[in-house]
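Supplementary Note 3. Input sequence used for the single-chain structure prediction.
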Amino acid sequence: MPRRVKVTSRRVAELAGVSQTTVSFVLNNVDSANISEETRQRVLEAARSVGYVPDVSARTLARGRSTNIGLVISPTFEQVFINEYIPNIISGLSKVTRKHGYRILVELLEDGSHPNTYLNLIRGKEVAGLVVNLVTPTELDIQALVASVAEGFPIVSLHHLHDAVHSVTIDKLEGVRRVLRHLLGMGHRRIACITYAAIQKEPHAYRRLVTYREVLEEAGIDYDEALVRYGCYDPETGYEAMKSLLEVWPMPTALYAMNDDMAIGAMTAIHESGLRIPQDIAVVGFDDVRLARYSTPALTTVHGPAIENGRVAGQMLIDLINNRPLEQKHIVLQTELKIRDSCGFRLHQAGNLS
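The predicted structure, written as discrete structure tokens, is reproduced below.
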């Protein structure tokens, strides 16, 4: 069997009628190179025609830095692999990294290992920049990230950690206000909440519960601990929490669950009890997962643009890597209330909610 001849960048250059340096600049997406679009397409077509694949080490040498983008995440195992948020972040991030010739290196942190893990990535030059999603950042985490930024290393956070660290976040607290005001506007006064069991360890989850309480109090409704239950990132905990809430008297007329998975589990418990959604209990969730519009009835929820969150964070990081000026250091993306049948809004408008 004849040995396959290795295709080189010199062969690509000959076919495209350009220098090897130009081939290297095009295939490695070197932004500083002044190469016309016509030349770039000619090089790409020549590379495709002969099946040329650049050597990773050569790419790194050409760029003078790693071809990896690090995604450092610290949610629980359940959140990463059950909840859609992180996969959507990766989807948005990859739209940018592929375009610029980078790969995503995912680092899942364990408790207590945060600073050493991502500092090793930085000091070992394994990544050209970092996107970080730290749910429970410690003071050591923040200090390490701020110090790395001060040394010129590109970092973008998916939560606002410190003024010195660039960030792209979703305004989920405004989403909480919007969905609760929607229920209040429909006349609900006993609105139950299924929040997170890890609320004491997760500052953002705690702030969402505080926001729930504040919106009720603004409407003249006293906070009632009997209407609050604790779950996680799965339907099972929402199901058990709702079963417990159905034993409260007077029974809640509406439920706000902090994610759609818990809301869907709660809906099953309501159905099993013989009660109707939304006539007996209105249900709203948060995140707008793919299954939300296919539940019975379709789930009213808050859409957080997680894919866009990943894409914008990725573009910000690429701009930092290439020393491009940024118009904003901290970007906040807005949520959108998706009104469907589970909250009873259409019945309410028609005067048939009874």
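The CA atoms of residues 157 and 167 lie 5 Å apart. The chain has a mean pLDDT of 87.
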